[in-house]
Design brief:
globular, DNA-binding, about 20% strand, five-stranded mixed β-sheet, four-stranded antiparallel β-sheet, alpha+beta, single chain, 15 helices
DNA sequence: TCTGGGGTCCTAGGACCC
DNA sequence: TCTGGGGTCCTAGGACCC
């Protein structure tokens, strides 16, 4: 059996933990740059605010409905997530952290020790709430896809008390009939439209279609697996990892600028900052990269025709993880992509072709005798930034001007709550 | 004025190799 | 005239997830 533990309205719940007066109030959380709505409390959902709504379009409605608006506060959400995940890891032998607010547990063999599983899940829920303040729902079923589906029903049907255990075929059949085909894990907008056209309405209908048909219509083997999993046949286990954290195959950092930029040095500073950030993530994962993609984007919403973005892929002579080295290539990439008289709104950096640091192959043509020195320097830099806060030490290229509080590419975050759990100055004060 | 960010997997086609 | 078969690697594009 697999369990899916999913935090309810996670970002909104995190804000509520530190401002209990928000309980029962509609809340929305905005994306980077206060661009669009990316999270909502139930109350805000009922009011009709949708995922992805641009803030400037719904600003007045939010105000009129008295909705609490927050900028996203990843320092807070990330830390709360770690607390929830840490607790889960204590309670089950195998945990896969699937996203910031969801985890799969492998419960095979646990029936003997904690039976029945739904009682176990209820205790888990209660304890997570008690320890972190975060409400959750839990679905348990023979496959991950069915556990997802069970979780969805546990959320939707308050009578279930936040837990649904699909332990028999009958229950599975019942659950499949309750869920629309578009709400199945792995069925997005395009596939949902296709399925509707073919007359398939519920998850049960989808579970009943042939493998060949699923394979043909739903993206090959992925579709076939999906249907199998709905029927209860396990096609995917937990993703392997040492500590529940997935090792990424690509690492990226991108941002929409706070304002459109047309000066080369401003864009270069942005790309440099994103490169540094991505390199930190790379080293934290213990990897080095072979392939670096840099892209620059223009406004997609104006009158100008596409293309809206241009990119370049650099094949690095050796796998590297050193910020100073990577910044050199970032500069080359921006130079290559740069078009004078263009106005850019966004940029990004992607690292692919990752391999473990320290076990990188030496290039025949570019020996790197000082690799050890570089690695030590980067380790020091990461340690300083961990200890004293992000960007305490950084590369000069990522700065523009002098003494400016904010770089021109940095976005707005007008309604950011304090980093209660990760910054001493932001500790909650009780008076 | 203002429209997010970070991932995954699969397929198909072309270049190239033996 | 005849015009293989099997494999890899790379890229682009398309779908999906949170």
């Amino acid at each position: 059996m697999f369990a899916l533990v999913d935090c309810n309205n996670f970002y909104a719940s995190c804000e509520r933990v530190f401002q209990p007066r928000l309980e029962g109030q509609p809340i929305v959380v905005l994306s980077n740059n206060d661009g669009c709505i990316i999270a909502r409390s139930n109350e805000a959902k009922v009011l009709g605010f949708r995922m992805g709504d641009p803030y400037f379009q719904v600003k007045h409605d939010l105000l009129a409905s008295n909705v609490c608006v927050f900028s996203s506060n990843y320092a807070l959400y990330g830390d709360m997530s770690r607390r929830v995940m840490w607790y889960l890891a204590q309670q089950a032998p195998e945990v896969e952290i699937y996203s910031i607010d969801e985890a799969f547990l492998d419960l095979h063999g646990m029936e003997k020790y904690v039976a029945p599983l739904d009682t176990f899940a209820r205790t888990l829920r209660t304890n997570i709430k008690k320890r972190t303040g975060i409400p959750t729902c839990i679905g348990i079923a023979p496959t991950k896809t069915l556990a997802k589906l069970a979780n969805r029903l546990a959320k939707k049907m308050p009578d279930l008390g936040g837990v649904l255990y699909l332990d028999t075929d009958e229950k599975c059949q019942w659950a499949l009939a309750q869920v629309g085909v578009g709400d199945v894990w792995g069925i997005g907008r395009q596939y949902a439209a296709k399925l509707a056209a073919a007359g398939l309405v519920t998850a049960a209908d989808l579970a009943g279609c042939s493998d060949a048909w699923a394979r043909k219509q739903l993206g090959g083997v992925v579709g076939a697996r999906l249907v199998q999993e709905l029927r209860g046949r396990v096609c995917q286990g937990l993703a392997p990892s040492e500590d529940g954290t997935l090792a990424r195959q690509s690492i990226s950092c991108s941002r929409t600028f706070g304002q459109p930029l047309s000066a080369f040095n401003d864009v270069l500073a942005a790309v440099g900052a994103f490169t540094s950030r991505a390199a930190e993530k790379l080293r934290r994962q213990g990897d080095a990269t072979h392939l670096m993609t840099v892209y620059l984007s223009k406004n997609r919403y104006g009158l100008e025709p596409p293309p809206y973005s241009c990119s370049t892929v650099l094949t690095l002579p050796v796998a590297m993880s050193d910020t100073t080295q990577l910044l050199r290539y970032a500069r080359m990439a921006v130079k290559k992509l740069w078009q004078a008289n263009s106005v850019y709104t966004k940029a990004g950096v992607i690292f692919d072709g990752l391999e473990p640091l320290g076990q990188t192959q030496l290039s025949l043509f570019e020996p790197a005798p000082d690799t050890g020195k570089r690695e030590r320097l980067m380790a020091e830099l990461d340690a300083l930034n961990r200890r004293f806060g992000k960007n305490t030490v950084r590369m000069a290229t990522t700065l523009v001007g002098r003494g400016k509080a904010r770089a021109p590419w940095e976005g707005k975050a007008q309604w950011c709550s304090p980093a209660y759990t990760t910054r001493l100055e932001d500790l909650l004060q009780v008076s």
